[in-house]
Amino acid sequence: MTSEPPGSNRFTIGALLRSGIIIAHKDGNYGSLYPRVSDFGLIGVPFITAKSLTDGRIDIAGAPRLAFDKAKKLTYGFVRPGDVLLSHNATIGRVAVMPDFDGEILVGTSLTYYRVDQTKLIPLYLAAFFSSVDFQNQLKAVMGLSTRNQVPITAQRKLNVVVPPIENQRYIADTLGTLDDRISMLREINTTLEAIAQALFKSWFVDFDPVRAKAEGLEPEGMDAATAALFPDSFEELELGLVPSGWRCGVLGDVAYTTRKQIQPSAMKAETLYVGLEHIPRQSLGLDSWASTDGLESAKSCFEKGDILFGKLRPYFHKIVIAPFAGVCSTDILVCNAKVADYYGFVAMQLFSTELVAYADRLSNGAKMPRVNWKDLSDYALVIPPVEVAAEYSDVVHPLFEQITANVHEAKTLGQLRDTLLPRLISGQLRLPEAEAQLEAVCA
């Protein structure tokens, strides 16, 4: 364990609980009342599990919904804003702080929640300490004493937490919060860029707005004369309905392909990066998490920078990203790209569309682990524009994709800085002026 900075003390979680600094320390173990798969649906109380936590964020929108009548039978496990979540079962050591929210939210058996007296212990500081090497090593030590991959609530109470004076806690939380805010801003920018690309895709290739405008004798909105000239001014009836004149009906496989190149772990270079399904966010083109190839035991698929990675396992999770680098990925990820470069933007947004994801979900096979295969996915029917129109769209969205990739790398760099600052701030090795200087340099 590291030495504590002046004024700090190390307490067990049990001691903090007995002193009232930690007000509540519970998990989502509901015993005989634990929900069954059939108790979940599209409507209900969000049910947060370890899988809902990624890089300090909580995917509330994507969490399973427990039926309201089933949730009413539970007397605990309901979290509040400011509660600190720690995953302790199967997936160990993920941490997040509950944001403000309306209604009720429950935690599953894989999570513990900590509710604290915020006049003595700041939630963001506690979450930061839980993420530190110090605490993560304590979790690993407990797991090393058992064959079960878990740190039960009784064992957690024997773990130690460094508690600095409240003003130091606040500074550490604010310092790390500055980085987190910057990372969140980059993710929000990416969301906006994705929305622009989606809106333009829908306008050109789904609603055919430029064609409709010209058919009515109007000038298409939001484009110059040269771009407008690429679109026809009439429709023709084809097998998919009314289609812009000169365009054709086809399938995804006409314009896109998937690579099948694989590599064994023994042939992977040390610097090769790995992307698993767990790293791909839902409904976002920006990949914001990845890992090294250490510990991989089976063959993986190879991909290049710019390839479109499509999660084929449980496709309804909508996990599709543009690869920001070359690497290897899980074989549960399809590595896709355009057959012709001019169709790249069209293919990327077609794969990212909710319509194609819904199609993939309908065709997925397997009750417990539904997967879609490329043969079925490639048969997805679509209207294919002429290459000139596809090329113009690619030219428009290419800078958006480039900015998304740049933001992904910047967010990763900020996250690494955060991880570097965290143990030094907690231990007192990094003084406040030094931390401020580093923050100013990176956030300038």
Estimated share of beta-strand residues: 15-25%
State the low-pLDDT regions, or none: none
Indicate the radius of gyration in whole angstroms.
25 Å
Biggest pleated-sheet summary: 5 strands, mixed
Name the CATH architecture of the domain at 10-163.
Alpha-Beta Complex
What is the rounded distance between the termini? Answer: 35 Å
CATH class of the domain at 10-163: Alpha Beta
- Strands in their spatial order, largest beta sheet: 17-20-23-18-19
What does this 3D model show about the protein?
The chain is an alpha+beta fold and 444 residues long. Among the domains are: 10-163, Adenine-n6-DNA-methyltransferase TaqI, Chain A, domain 2; 251-384, Alpha-Beta Complex (Adenine-n6-DNA-methyltransferase TaqI, Chain A, domain 2). It is built from 13 helices and 25 strands. The strands form eight sheets. It has a five-stranded mixed beta sheet, with no helix packed on it. A four-stranded antiparallel beta sheet has the order 2-11-8-9. Strand 21 and strand 22 (320-322) form a beta hairpin. The model has no long low-confidence stretch (mean pLDDT 92). Belongs to the type-I restriction system S methylase family. This is Type I restriction modification DNA specificity domain-containing protein. Residues 81-194 form the Type I restriction modification DNA specificity domain.
